[in-house]
Amino acid sequence: RTLIAGWAIGYYGARGEEPLDEEAPPGSDFLAEVCVAWEAEAQKAAALEMRVVNVRTGVVLDSRGGALAKMLPPFRLGVGGPVAGGRQYVSWIHRDDEVGMIVAALEDERWSGPINATAPEPVTNRELSHALGRALHRPALLPVPGGALGLLYGEMAQVVTTGARVVPAKGLVLGYEFRHPQLDEALRSALAN
User: What whole-number distance in Å separates Cα of residue 34 and Cα of residue 120?
Assistant: First the structure.
C-alpha cells in the first residue's frame, strides 16, 4: 500500500545559495527533467490507493560507494581539495540517515509526496573538502578544476560543479531525528565502516 520511490536532489537543478525545501519548483536541466518525469510516473500509483513517497536523495556519505568513495583516493594521497572554486553547495546525508528516512517513510503514514533526504545543514564544497581532509588527517588544499571532473564523473560532473542547497524541511517537521546531523562526525562514521 506504499510506494517509496528514490530520485535525486538533481530534481532542483543548479540553484546556488537559495535554500530549497520540498516545495521548491524543479530545475530545467536534463537531470531535473528526468527526476520530474520519474516522479510523475510514480505518482500514478496514488490512483491505486497507494501512498507515494518520492525520496530526493543528496550526496550519500558511504566510503564503499558513490561520490565519497571516488573522493577518497586523492584525499588519502594528500592531493584532494575544493572542486571548481568550492563555493557550490553539497547537500549530503549519512547512509544511516538515508536508510532511517526510508524506514520512517515506510512506517509512518504521514510521510507522503516529496521528501528531501539530506542532512539539515548543507555545506559548500570547500567546507566538505576541508572536513574530509580533517577526517583523514591529510591536507585538502589543492583545488580541482571543474573540467577534470569529467574524467571521474562524466556527464554527472555538472552536479558536482554547480550544486544546490537542499534542506530536509518535511522530514524535520515530521519529527525525523538525524543520527549524523554534523558533517565532521558523519564523515568519521562513514570512514570507520
Answer: 25
Residue 67, all three cell numbers:
561520490
Cα 62 → chain centroid: 11
Over the stretch 146-178, which tens digit does the pLDDT of each residue have? 666 667 666 666 666 788 999 999 999 999 999
Residue 112 buriedness (CB in 10 A; 0-12 / 13-18 / 19+)? middle
pTM, two decimal places: 0.92
Instruction: For residue range 54-73, list pLDDT tens digits in order.
Output: 999 999 999 998 889 988 99
Side chain identity at residue 20, one-letter code: L
**Closest C-alpha among 146, 152, 131 to residue 69:** 152
Contact 169, 22 (CB under 8 A): yes
CA atoms of 85 and 89, how far apart (whole Å): 11
